[in-house]
């Protein structure tokens, strides 16, 4: 089964060199009896993907450091299919933080209200608002990139790959929970740093997926933030706490 999948991937040119982003026919050659030889890229003469022999923890650390090579390995040379679940969990984390802040702003200090709060619909409303904000942020990015580089997003598969990359690059929102659990005087600063880290990860994901320079991804993110803030202003005019 694995050999069939590998041949199919090679036929589609789905593998990428993590150094130069060039296409590769295979990641390694299996000589059996446990002997593997990592393929060398024909363009840059470097190993196509050195991460295939790395421990997942090392790969994760390199991804946290926003290394382009680690992003290419994850996006092009692996079959990670957790972007949907990761997106939902990150949105739940964000909704939980907003729900806590909403309760902290309440003047009612009756302990019995804690049970009532757990049953209220505020948490689900915050989840819906966070989902709409993130959707508008992604739409702003897609519109900008499609307008600036239409040749990069010609096929439906290009949109799907970019969406997957953006969803995976929001993993930094998982840090929201420990930031609140270990609450201290610097929690607002921590939340701001997490926001910046997520934006940096989004920028790197766009750059790696579409093979762009460093400026255009940030340009797209800027317009994504404008559209997201427009949604926030709309909710505020409606009288909703966001």
UniProtKB/TrEMBL annotation:
It comes from the Eukaryota. The chain crosses the membrane at residues 126-147, 159-182, 215-235. It is a multi-pass membrane protein. GO terms for biological process: intracellular sterol transport; regulation of plasma membrane sterol distribution; sphingolipid metabolic process; sterol metabolic process. Keywords: Endoplasmic reticulum, Lipid metabolism, Lipid transport, Membrane, Transmembrane, Transmembrane helix, Transport. The keyword Transmembrane applies. InterPro entries: Arv1. Mediator of sterol homeostasis involved in sterol uptake, trafficking and distribution into membranes. Belongs to the ARV1 family. PANTHER family: ARV1 (PTHR14467), PROTEIN ARV1 (PTHR14467:SF0). This is Protein ARV. It comes from Cephalopterus ornatus (Amazonian umbrellabird).
């Amino acid at each position: 089964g694995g050999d069939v999948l590998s041949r199919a991937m090679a036929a589609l040119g789905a593998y990428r060199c993590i150094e130069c982003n060039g296409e590769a026919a295979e990641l390694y050659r299996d000589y059996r009896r446990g002997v593997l030889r990592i393929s060398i890229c024909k363009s840059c003469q470097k190993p196509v993907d050195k991460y295939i022999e790395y421990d997942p923890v090392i790969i994760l650390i390199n991804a946290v450091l926003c290394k382009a090579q680690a992003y290419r390995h994850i996006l092009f040379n692996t079959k990670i299919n957790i972007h949907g679940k990761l997106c939902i969990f990150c949105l739940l984390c964000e909704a939980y933080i907003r729900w806590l802040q909403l309760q902290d702003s309440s003047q009612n200090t009756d302990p019995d209200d804690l049970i009532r709060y757990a049953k209220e619909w505020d948490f689900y409303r915050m989840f819906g608002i966070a989902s709409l904000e993130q959707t508008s942020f992604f739409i702003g990015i897609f519109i900008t990139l499609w307008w600036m580089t239409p040749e990069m997003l010609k096929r439906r598969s290009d949109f799907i790959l970019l969406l997957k990359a953006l969803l995976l690059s929001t993993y930094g929102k998982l840090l929201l929970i420990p930031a609140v659990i270990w609450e201290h005087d610097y929690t607002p600063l921590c939340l701001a740093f997490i926001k910046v880290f997520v934006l940096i990860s989004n920028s790197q994901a766009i750059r790696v997926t579409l093979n762009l320079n460093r400026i255009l991804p940030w340009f797209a993110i800027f317009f994504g933030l404008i559209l997201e803030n427009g949604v926030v202003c709309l909710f505020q005019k409606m009288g909703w706490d966001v």
